[in-house]
Amino acid sequence: MSPADDKVVGNGGRPRLRDLPNDSTTKILVVATLVCIVCAVLVSSAAVLLRPIQQRNALLQKQRDILTVAGLYDRTADLDQQFKQIEAHLVDLDTGMYSDDGDALQFDVASAVRDPNASSRIPTADDLAKIHRRAHQMPVYLVRKGTDIDTVILPIYGYGLWSTMYGYVALNSTGERVKAITFYDHGETPGLGAEIENLRWQALWAGKRTFDEQGKVALSVSKTRPAEGWADYHVDAISGATLTSVGVHNMIQYWLGEQGYGPYLSRLRDGGA
User: Fold this and answer.
1) I need a labelling partner for 242 at 20 to 30 A (CA). Which of 25, 122, 162, 163 fits?
2) Residue (of 200, 146, 199, 155) closest to 173 by Cα position
3) Are the beta carbons of 217 and 210 closer than 8 angstroms?
4) Residue among 220, 264, 266, 260 nearest 129 (CA)
5) Do 54 and 88 share a domain, yes or no?
6) Is residue 74 in some structural domain?
7) Any domain includes 77
8) What does pTM read for this prediction?
């Protein structure tokens, strides 16, 4: 206790906080501690109270992104009503079969890959997308016309130049042609790699073919002009963003391939999904 603290005592010889001078060391430490406690309680309470709102907003954004890549989003209509057009499933990536183990719309890829029981390490030689671990199952979203599948929407992600890029690719009913692509989260360079968000570049993907006649992933992103007869399999790389473009190419190759949705897409082509 400082000399100033010794001058004012009460309560059996103990100093009373209100009677201590404002420059008292004891008073400063007590007040600072109380302020920290109050602030911590307020921040924690706000986080708890806001979590349901944040989760709801994240879900709405996911629904909006899926509807957009499916070509169904109407900003004037109720989002929940619109999303009733979407059929969500979880798919076992090894077998390509639908799984009932979880909620496809609520599925969190980041949480799944952190769980050793829900994911596995990808051998370096197979890790084209540079994601290190792969969840055992992933969501797929379907749009039907009547009872027939019209559009298949696949979540995809992979590493670019600076960041992991997250997006959706929409394919036709057999998975053999791209209908649309979108990216909703990344940290690529503004004006360069961030052009993966550019609608004009995304429009280049529409109608591109995904697999060659042998069923191998043939869709590519590169600066090199395709050989004759391969233009339908080619998307021009983004000017000035070589490594981001390579990342998108590798992401597509991985997720459409056997390590990704390949077994499921094979079932689609055979009419079994």
Assistant:
1) 122
2) 146
3) yes
4) 260
5) no
6) no
7) no
8) 0.81
Instruction: Judge if 93 and 15 occupy the same domain.
Output: no
Residues 11 and 94 in one domain: no
Same domain, 99 and 47: no
Residuewise pLDDT in 10s, the chain (273 residues): 445 444 444 445 566 766 667 667 776 777 778 788 888 777 777 666 666 677 778 889 999 999 999 999 999 999 999 999 999 999 999 999 999 788 999 999 999 999 999 999 999 999 999 999 999 999 999 999 999 999 999 999 999 999 999 999 999 999 999 999 999 999 999 999 999 999 999 999 999 999 999 999 999 999 988 888 899 999 999 999 999 999 999 999 999 999 999 999 999 998 877
Number of compact structural domains in the chain: 2
Distances in Å between the Cα of 102 and the Cα atoms of 81, 97, 111, 135, 139 are 22, 14, 13, 13, 10
Give the residue numbers spanning the domain of 35.
Answer: 3-61
| 47 and 172 together in one domain | no
In this structure, which amino acid lies at residue 84? K
The string of DSSP letters for 1-17 reads --HHHHTS-BTTTBPPG
Which residues, at least 6 apart from 104, have a Cβ–Cβ distance to it below 8 Å?
88, 89, 90, 139, 140, 141
